Amino acid sequence: MIASVRGPVRHVGLDHVVVEVGGIGLLVHTTPGTAAECRTGQEATLETSLVVREESLTLYGFRGADAKALFEQVQTVSGVGPRLALAMLSVHAPDTVRRAIAQGDLAALTKVPGIGRKSAERLVLELKDKILAVGVDPADLSVQPGGAAVDDGVLGQVREALEGLGWSAKQASDAVTRVTGAQDAPAGVSDILRAALRELGR
């Protein structure tokens, strides 16, 4: 098991980073928020969870052990795999997910693409008595002012990332349009993506 990685960041994508460890570049899948915090050339330390499949070994990375623990815990529920678990952490902070499960807040859980009412009910039923809900505010997803015109290529990258997380093409396009059409709209890829995630999570 690869429990963590530390090393210089060689590449930053919308939902992944490449970290060099011992001369080997490891592709680590992350939430868009975690990827946005990494900088090419700077050292990063990520808590990791290795998902082993017959045809692949996939590494998922998190800024803290808290998010990693939740990522692994929700996968104990039938029908929840690593992609859906990562989507949950892309939309909500770890304690927001825990609080939603502990309080049976189906509305919050179904904001995650791929989680319908039945899946949300199953999460609550199987984890409500096991999960620790800590009373903290959700992660701050506020957007910094941008104001500059946004390139179509940038918007395309954001839409593609949102679709990869499970939203439909229309949902992704509508969210990007709302975010970039607002006053003081963000301009960078990561800022637009975070703002679109916030918009879709409402």
Walk me through what this model shows.
This protein has helices spanning 32-37, 65-74, 82-91, 94-103, 106-109, 117-127, 152-164, 169-180, 189-200; strands at 4-12, 16-21, 24-29, 43-53, 56-62. Helix 7 (152-164) packs across helix 8 and helix 7 (152-164) crosses helix 9. The longest helix is centred in the last third of the chain and has 13 residues, at 152-164. The chain is α+β, with helices and mostly antiparallel strands and 202 residues long. It is 44% helix and 19% strand. It is built from nine helices and five strands, in the order E-E-E-H-E-E-H-H-H-H-H-H-H-H. Mean pLDDT is 83; it is low at 133-149. It folds into three domains: 4-62, Nucleic acid-binding proteins (OB fold (Dihydrolipoamide Acetyltransferase, E2P)); 66-127, 5' to 3' exonuclease, C-terminal subdomain (DNA polymerase, domain 1, Orthogonal Bundle), CATH 1.10.150.20; 152-200, Orthogonal Bundle (Helicase, Ruva Protein, domain 3), CATH 1.10.8. A five-stranded mixed beta barrel has the order 1-2-3-5-4.
Task: Throw out a few tags for this protein.
202 residues; OB fold (Dihydrolipoamide Acetyltransferase, E2P); DNA polymerase, domain 1; Helicase, Ruva Protein, domain 3; 5 strands; DNA-binding; ATP-binding; hydrolase
